[in-house]
Amino acid sequence: MTPNRLITIAIHTVEKALPLKNLLEREGIYVELNNVNLASPTVAAGVRIRIKESDLPLALRIIENIEIFNIPATGEEGEAGGVVLLPTDFSPHSDNAAKVAFRLASRLGFSIEMLHSFIAPASPRGVQLMDSYDYELADMAERQTIEEEAKLMMENYTARVRSWIKSGEVPAVKFSTMVTEGIPEESILCYARDKKPQLIVMGTRGADKKEAELIGSVTAEVLDSCRIPAFTVPESVDASELAGLRRVAFLCNLDQEDMIALDTLYRLFPDQSLDVMLIYIPGRRDRGDSDSKRGQAQLNLLSYCREHFPRYGFDMRTVRLDTLIDDFKGIIQEGPYNLICVPNKKRNVFARVFNPSIAHKILFRADVPMMVIPV
Length: 375
Fold this sequence. Notes:
- By secondary structure, this protein is α/β, with parallel strands linked by helices.
- It has 3 domains: 6-64, no CATH class; 83-119 and 150-224, HUPs (Rossmann fold, 3-Layer(aba) Sandwich), CATH 3.40.50; 245-374, HUPs (Rossmann fold), CATH 3.40.50.620.
- Helices cover 42% and strands 21% of the residues.
- The chain has helices at residues 14-26, 56-64, 66-70, 92-108, 132-167, 184-195, 207-210, 218-225, 256-268, 291-308, 324-334, 356-365, and strands at 6-12, 31-34, 47-52, 83-87, 111-118, 175-181, 199-204, 230-234, 247-252, 275-280, 313-318, 339-344, 370-374.
- The strands form 2 sheets. The protein has a 10-stranded mixed β-sheet, with helices on both faces. A 3-stranded antiparallel β-sheet has the order 1-3-2, covered by helices on one side.
- Helix 6 runs parallel beside helix 8.
- The longest helix is centred in the middle third of the chain and has 36 residues, at 132-167.
- The N and C termini lie far apart (56 Å).
């Protein structure tokens, strides 16, 4: 290959060649047009679009996914196949979540909606009536400035995502963006209620930082309240490892909702053979059950899973309430597991068993991706 040699990548009419030239140049590719009838360009045909040979792989990737690069995507409706909601604050752990979201969306045939929320200034208390108009104008100006900054950050983030697609770092998936005013967790929950995406993907901090930020965590609030499956991605996880997903720790109570959550997991990863460890967490109401009764319930669940989810392998472990945190941590470390899966019931599996703050500490302590499935 001669890097600077010009090659013809396409032949179009002028009407089609000029927009394509502008698009490729906007993405940093040198383009020449040949055979243009300068005397009468409107009737010219057979315009050759030529690029440097070294730019061919990048140009082909752009042309093959022209719907992604051609129009700035802002608040478009998702594909009929479904939508992955990707909240972002433009931080490094949001980047990691985005890369996982694109891989999941590509595998499932979904599009992506990237959502960013900004918080407008609050009017100071104790403002006298005669000053309220001035404060209102000041607040409006400050709000507009914050909104413009948020939209600019989203534009820059969109350019970064497109650069990942161009380089092949993430699959080419159609995406749109939305910038909205509001508290982040409320904006996410409102979007989920109104638009009903098929999946929410969110980034989290590392285990050494999560516990310090546990109170008020946006991710924790969404997981507690949302009725949409949510996938959390720690910043320390390599997004490319998703393709090697093999071992899943599935927390359960041995009831019907566990089967519904397993079915959701099965449909979200239809092309993978997973080894699923069912981790039984006995509730206080189970303490009066005999060992034989609990044992039979475990066998029934294992039998059901092996019959209805044949691509997955299943085994089961039990943890004790009085040593729950240590038991859970030991199981996760000895796996090791690529994913923790939790059925989220209207009264959360953890909230029904013990103090929810302990549940958060368990789930946020491990640097393992987690899927919370409402049932």
